[in-house]
Design goal:
327 residues, mainly alpha, Rossmann fold, Tyrosyl-Transfer RNA Synthetase, 2 domains, three-stranded parallel β-sheet, two-stranded parallel sheet, 14 helices, 7% strand, binds tryptophan, binds iron/sulfur cluster
Length: 327
């Protein structure tokens, strides 16, 4: 049977952290065998929230190295930059005629961004963020899109646009489904918000063992557990979430019991978590070193992925032109 097609995308924000890994990358790596996958680097989307483009190139390389080091296989699934395949721009323009501004203004992800980033005056391109994302997905006829919760509204908008196109011009596009990533949110080291680069509460896939230990030492835990002997509440502690994610089941239950009784101190508990994280990161760091020393290979991987992506995109666009009776 023909494998279903998925389109996964990330904005190139630079080196990835454990939250990105757990919330997306880990899942992509699993999915690459079950599906025919395409991996998009959404560099144009970066412009919706900032005009400074000086870091995009380096951030792209850093992110792609993390993809490769973590186990995403470019042979199975091409990697490509949005800005290198012109069809993204072209389909974006056509799709922008198929949705109302009122619908885009209702997008809850946009509302959250406007609030969180204190945006006073929204640029036109930011309003169109989901339309560009719809073009990303539809160009490859994506049938499913792995996403975190915040991206579900964008996939919903994609479905509406695909439906509208098909009704108006004839069947070209599947209506893609969201594949929700289960363990979507990993808390940051500050224990409050989710892990995020800008909040400075992240452990990166590129952090060495000493860095991980030092960061973990400063992690915020249950404030009522001041010293060893005090009983703690694992359910409100970020370090416990890390154990749940990265430690084997026996250790998780030992930690839970020890924390509640007070027998386990936070210093030891953090060290255990740091060790598990370091174990997980060790092979990733090894591979990262290899790619850092072979940047030409990374570049070639993008060029090759873009060639393969472009072939699919061109084919879709010629179908679009045909259905739309354009020239
Ligand atoms: N909006 C996505 C995010 O911020 C990135 C993205 C752009 C994307 N185009 C996409 C994700 C297409 C999936 C499919 O995470
Ligand atoms: Fe958190 Fe571990 Fe301390 Fe309990 S013992 S509060 S789980 S760091």
């Amino acid at each position: 049977m023909q494998k279903k097609r998925i389109l996964s995308g990330m904005r190139p924000t630079g080196k990835l952290h454990l939250g990105n890994y757990v919330g997306a990358l880990e899942n992509w790596i699993k999915l690459q065998d079950q599906y025919e996958s395409f991996h998009l680097i959404a560099d144009y989307h970066m412009l919706t929230t900032g005009l400074d483009t000086s870091h995009i190139k380096q951030n792209t390389i850093d992110m792609v190295i993390d993809w490769l080091a973590a186990g995403l296989d470019p042979e199975k699934s091409p990697f490509f930059r949005q800005s290198k395949i012109k069809e993204h721009t072209e389909l974006f323009l056509l799709l922008s005629m198929l949705i109302s501004t009122a619908r885009l203004e209702r997008n809850p992800t946009l509302k959250d961004q406007v609030r969180d980033l204190n945006i006073e005056s929204l640029v036109y391109g930011h309003l169109g963020y989901p339309v560009l994302q719809a073009a990303d997905i539809m160009l490859y006829k994506g049938e499913a899109v792995p996403v975190g919760e915040d991206q579900i509204p964008h996939v919903e908008i994609t479905r509406e646009i695909a439906r509208k196109f098909n009704l108006q011009y004839g069947e070209v596009f599947p209506e893609p489904e969201s594949l929700l990533t289960k363990f979507a949110r990993l808390p940051g080291l500050d224990g409050i918000a989710k892990m995020s680069k800008s909040l400075n509460n992240a452990i990166f896939l590129s952090d060495g063992p000493e860095v991980v230990k030092a960061k973990m030492k400063k992690a915020v835990t249950d404030p009522l557990k001041v010293r060893k002997g005090d009983p703690g509440r694992p359910e409100i502690c970020a370090v416990f979430m890390y154990h749940e994610k990265f430690s084997p089941a026996e250790e998780v239950s030992e930690v839970e019991t020890g924390c509640r009784s007070g027998a386990l101190g936070c210093v030891d508990c953090k060290l255990k978590a740091a060790n598990r994280i370091n174990q997980m990161l060790e092979p990733i760091l090894e591979k990262r070193k290899h790619y850092e020393a072979n940047l030409d290979t990374v570049n070639d991987i993008l060029i090759d992925g873009e060639k393969r992506g472009r072939a699919v995109a061109e084919k879709t666009m010629s179908e679009v032109h045909e259905k739309m009776l354009l020239g």
